[in-house]
Amino acid sequence: MVSGAIRWDPERYAATARFVTELGRPVLEWLAPRAGERILDLGCGDGLLMAELAALGCAVVGIDASAEMVEAARARGLDARVMDAQALAFDGGFDAVYSNAALHWMPQAGSVIGGVRRALVPGGRFVGEFGGAGNVAGICAALNAARARRGLPSVSPWFNPSPVEYRAMLEAGGFSVERLEHFPRPTPLPGPLGDWLQTFTGAFLEAVPRAEHAALLAEALERLRATHLGPDGAWRVDYVRLRFAARRALD
Ligand code: BEZ
Predict the structure, then answer these.
(1) How many angstroms is it from 182 CA to the middle of ligand 1?
(2) Which CATH class is domain 10-135+159-189+236-248?
(3) Is 187 helix (H, G, I), strand (E, B) or coil?
(4) How far apart (Å, rounded) are the C-alpha atoms in residues 77 and 14?
(5) Among 237, 232, 206, which Cα is nearest to 221's?
(6) Which candidate, 64, 224, 25, places its Cα nearest to that of 136?
(7) Taking residues 204-208, what's their average pLDDT?
(8) Burial of 163 (0-12, 13-18, 19+ CB in 10 A)
(9) Paired strand residues for 98
């Protein structure tokens, strides 16, 4: 759910982005966990979904690049560890690996897939959901327009593959793809879009003087008002999801 590239504050995350965990429930449905299974959560964040699996009787391990989030997950009594999912240190033993809203933070997708394959038993499941091609495209365009006005190049901080690209990566990594869906999921926010921008879009502030940060975000927000603010007064994020279920080939 989170990356080590920015500093994550579990309380702020819970206040502005708890809905991200809530919207991860379909991933658990596709995972179809059974009591007694050993399951690895890639990007476990503060462990809310892990706790549900533990309550079902699964033996769950979570990893996250953020020490603060791992600490929050441990405070729930969970087995959470600080680890980069692009350099997984597991060798077999897991019946399933799942990930919600985390893989778009990991550009080395081939390394993630290789590490998941090694972590799984033959026939084990890899189920996940993350931002696919077109994810938050309107928000990126507004932020990059504000950068361009300052003479700065566009940035594209997230890994958002098309379904064709991701299927090919999974297959090349030794998985057979059982289900793969790519769909828009415009999502109303519980609060202002400005809070979301502040929480997640630090990469767009690269090479921008600190004194200009607030102005750049305010400018992007103004551009988004016409497209992302609904008549009901709720801001919407233009999420596009890639949801998949794959299985490690039998050796
Ligand atoms: C996402 O869940 O797709 C996402 C979250 C934060 C920043 C960008 C994308």
Answers:
(1) 15
(2) alpha beta
(3) strand
(4) 18
(5) 237
(6) 224
(7) 96
(8) middle
(9) 41, 127
Mutate to test the pocket of ligand 1, among 100, 105, 135 (most ligand atoms within 8 A of CB): 135
Give mean pLDDT, residues 65-76. Answer: 97
Sheet with 175-188, side-by-side order of all strands: 79-82, 59-64, 38-42, 94-100, 120-131, 236-248, 175-188
Q: Where are the domains of the chain?
A: 10-135+159-189+236-248
Query: pTM for the full model?
Result: 0.93
38 lines ligand 1 (CB under 6 A): no
Distance in angstroms (rounded) separating the CA atoms of residues 45 and 12: 12
> Are 160 and 134 spatial neighbours (Cβ–Cβ below 8 Å)?
yes
218: tokens are 């305010």
Query: pLDDT for 159-201, tens place per residue?
Result: 999 999 999 999 999 999 999 999 999 999 999 999 999 989 9
- Tokens at residue 4, please? 């080590």
Is 73 close to ligand 1, i.e. is its CB under 6 Å away? no
* pLDDT tops 80 at residue 4: no
